[in-house]
Design a protein that fits this description.
By secondary structure, the protein is an alpha/beta fold. The chain folds into three domains: about 5-145 and about 265-325, 3-Layer(bba) Sandwich (FAD/NAD(P)-binding domain); about 155-260, FAD/NAD(P)-binding domain (3-Layer(bba) Sandwich); about 340-455, 2-Layer Sandwich (Enolase-like, domain 1). Helix content is about 30%, strand content about 25%. It has helices at about 15-25, 40-45, 45-70, 80-105, 160, 180-190, 210-220, 310-325, 355-365, 380, 410-425, 425-430; strands at about 5-10, 30-35, 110, 115-120, 120-125, 130-140, 140-145, 170-175, 195-200, 225-230, 235-240, 240-245, 250-255, 255-260, 265, 300, 340-345, 350-355, 365-375, 385-395, 400-405. Strands 1, 2, 3, 4, 5, 6 and 16 form a seven-stranded mixed β-sheet that branches. A five-stranded antiparallel β-sheet has the order 17-18-21-20-19, with helices on both faces. A four-stranded parallel β-sheet has the order 10-9-8-14, covered by helices on one side. A hairpin with a 2-residue loop joins strand 4 (about 115-120) and strand 5 (about 120-125). The longest helix is centred in the first third of the chain and has 26 residues, at about 80-105. Bound molecules: NADPH dihydro-nicotinamide-adenine-dinucleotide phosphate. NADPH dihydro-nicotinamide-adenine-dinucleotide phosphate (NDP) binds near residues 232 and 311.
C-alpha cells in the first residue's frame, strides 16, 4: 500500500523535531503536526523562558551583593514589560529557527491538531483532511495537571501562564513541592513578590537525595519564602479583589495569583490512541519498549508522552535513537542511567546518579563524602547562603555512583561530572584529579574524610 508519508510525527517539540529532521535527512518523506507552536514546551513555555526568568530574578540579589564589592547601585528598578517583551522576542526567534531547520531538512510542517482514525490514518482536525503514514511517532509531550477536585480551580494558573504575567504579583501562592514549584518560588521571590509555597509533604523535591531536599527547603525559607507543609488546597475563592486559598489544615492564605505546580500528565487525551491499538498506562502515558516502540509495531513514542524521564535532552536522545534505528540502519536504545539533572532553584541543584538512600538499598554498603560551606564570593557580600556537595560511593569497588550539588553553577559543574560518573570513575579517580583553585567545584576532588553520622561516631 502506498502511504502519503513514510513518517508522520505528532508534536513539534524537542523530541518530535529531532526525529523529524533526522528521518527527513535520511531520505524519508516526513510530516510533523503541531497544534500550538514549533519548539514545544521547552522552547515556548518551559526550560528556555524559565531560565530567562531565573536570570532576571537573580539580578535582584546580585545588585545587593554588588555593594559588598564597592559598587554603588542606587535606585535600581525592574521593568517587567521590557523584560517580557525581550524574552518573548527571543522565544519567537528560537521557535522560528526550529521551524526553519525542520523545513530545511525536508520535513513538512502541518500547523494543526491531528487525531488517529486508525493505525495508519490521521485526521487533521481543522481542515478535516486525512493522511496516511507508514510509521507514526507520538511526541506530544505533557501538560500541567490542574486537579478538578479543588473547588474554584479555574481561578488558579499553571506554569503555562507564568510566562505571560502582566505584572509581578504582590503575593503569590504556589501549590506543590517539585521542580516547577521550587523554581518559580525562587523566581517570584527574586522579582520581589511575597511567596507562600504550600506542600503536602514534609520536605520539598521528593525523589532527590535527602540532604539536597533539606538544603533546598532551608534555603527557600532563608530567602523569605513562607513554606507551609503537610497541607493541600481545598478551595479557591475570590475575596475582595484577591484570591483566598483554603487549605486542608484549616488555614487560609490570600494572594493575587495561585500557581498550581502539582505535576504534568502525558498529552494523550483525545488523540484516539485506542483506534490505533496503542496501549497507555494508568497515567495515560504511551507504553513503549527500549526502542520507543508502542504496542502497535509501526507506532512509536518519545519524550514526556512516555513518562520515562521527563527532560528535554532525554526526549532528544530517545528521538535520535528512534531515527537511527528506523532510518539509519543503526539499532540504538537510549540508556536512561546517570542522566544529569538540574533544578533551577536559588541556589540551583545539579545531580547525577543515585541518592544515598537508593545506593544503600541497592548496594548495602556505601561511603558518603559531603561538605557544606559558604562560598568565597559571599565572604564580602555577607550572604549566608551555603553550598552542599555530596559524593555517594559504592563501598565494594569505590565507584562513584552519585554526585549531588546545591550551589552557584551546580548545573554547569554537574554536566562535566556526569561524564566521569558515566565512565565509571572511582573515588580514587576523583582524588587523583588535581583541584582547580579557587573554585567551588574543587571540593569535589578534595573531599577525603568519609562522613560518619553523629550517632555512629565514637564518643
Ligand atoms: P513534580 O512531579 O516535580 O512535582 C509535583 C509536586 O506536586 C510534588 O511536590 C507533589 O507532591 C505535589 N502534588 C502532586 N499532586 C498533588 C495534589 N493533588 N495536591 C497537592 N500537591 C500535589 O511536578 P512539576 O509540576 O514540578 O514538574 C513536572 C515535571 O516537569 C518534572 O517532574 C520534571 O520532569 C519536568 N521539569 C523539569 C525541570 C528541570 O529539568 N529543571 C523544570 C520543570 C519541570 P509529592 O512530593 O508528595 O508527590
Amino acid at each position: 500500500m502506498a502511504y502519503d508519508y513514510d513518517l508522520f510525527v505528532i508534536g513539534a517539540g524537542s523530541g518530535g523535531v529531532r526525529a523529524s529532521r533526522l528521518a527527513a535527512m535520511s531520505g524519508a518523506k516526513v510530516a510533523v503536526a503541531e497544534e500550538y507552536r514549533t519548539g514545544g514546551t521547552c522552547v515556548v513555555r518551559g526550560c528556555i523562558p524559565k531560565k530567562y526568568m531565573v536570570y532576571a530574578s537573580e539580578f535582584g540579589s546580585a545588585i545587593t551583593h554588588a555593594k559588598g564589592y564597592g559598587w554603588n547601585v542606587e535606585n535600581a528598578t525592574y521593568d517587567h514589560n521590557l523584560f517580557m517583551d525581550r524574552m518573548h522576542r527571543e522565544i519567537d526567534r528560537l521557535s522560528g529557527i526550529y521551524a526553519r531547520n525542520l523545513r530545511n531538512s525536508g520535513a513538512e510542517i502541518i500547523e494543526e491538531r491531528v487525531e488517529f482514525v486508525d493505525a495508519h490514518t490521521l485526521k487533521l482536525v481543522m481542515s478535516g483532511r486525512t493522511v496516511t503514514a507508514k510509521k507514526i511517532l507520538i511526541a506530544t509531550g505533557g501538560s500541567p495537571i490542574m486537579p478538578r477536585d479543588v473547588e474554584g480551580i479555574d481561578l488558579a494558573i499553571s506554569s503555562n501562564e507564568m510566562f505571560h504575567l502582566d505584572e509581578i504579583p504582590e503575593h503569590i501562592v504556589i501549590i506543590g513541592g517539585g521542580y516547577i514549584a521550587v523554581e518559580f518560588a525562587g523566581i517570584m521571590r527574586g522579582l520581589g513578590a511575597r511567596v507562600c509555597l504550600v506542600y503536602r509533604g514534609e520536605t520539598v523535591l521528593r525523589g532527590f537525595d535527602d540532604d539536597v531536599r533539606t538544603h533546598v527547603h532551608d534555603e527557600l525559607k532563608r530567602k523569605g519564602v513562607r513554606v507551609i507543609t503537610h497541607a493541600s488546597p481545598k478551595a479557591i475563592a475570590k475575596d475582595d479583589g484577591k484570591l483566598k486559598v483554603t487549605l486542608s489544615n484549616g488555614e487560609s492564605v490570600t494572594a493575587d495569583k495561585v500557581l498550581f505546580a502539582v505535576g504534568r500528565e502525558p498529552h494523550t487525551r483525545g488523540l484516539g490512541l485506542e483506534k490505533a491499538g496503542v496501549k497507555v498506562n494508568d497515567k495515560g502515558a504511551v507504553e513503549v519498549d527500549g526502542y520507543s516502540r508502542s504496542s502497535t509495531a509501526h507506532i512509536f513514542a518519545v519524550g514526556d508522552v512516555t513518562d520515562r524521564l521527563n527532560l528535554t535532552p532525554v526526549a532528544i536522545r530517545e528521538a535520535q535513537a528512534f531515527a537511527q534505528t528506523e532510518y539509519m540502519n543503526l539499532p540504538t536504545q537510549f540508556d536512561h542511567a546517570d542522566v544529569p539533572i538540574a533544578v533551577f532553584a536559588q541556589p540551583p541543584v545539579g545531580v547525577v546518579g543515585m541518592t544515598e538512600a537508593e545506593a544503600r538499598r541497592q548496594f548495602g554498603q556505601v561511603d558518603i563524602y559531603k561538605t557544606r560551606f559558604r562560598p568565597m564570593k559571599d565572604m564580602l557580600t555577607g550572604d549566608e547562603e551555603r553550598v552542599l556537595m555530596k559524593i555517594v560511593v559504592r563501598a565494594e569497588d569505590e565507584r562513584v555512583v552519585g554526585v549531588h550539588i546545591v550551589g552557584p553553577d551546580a548545573p554547569e559543574i554537574i554536566q562535566a561530572v556526569a561524564i566521569a560518573v558515566k565512565m565509571g570513575a572511582t573515588k580514587a579517580d576523583f582524588d587523583r584529579t588535581c583541584a582547580l583553585h579557587p573554585s567551588i567545584a574543587e571540593e569535589l576532588v578534595t573531599l577525603r574524610e568519609k562522613f560518619v553520622p553523629p550517632e555512629l561516631k565514637p564518643v
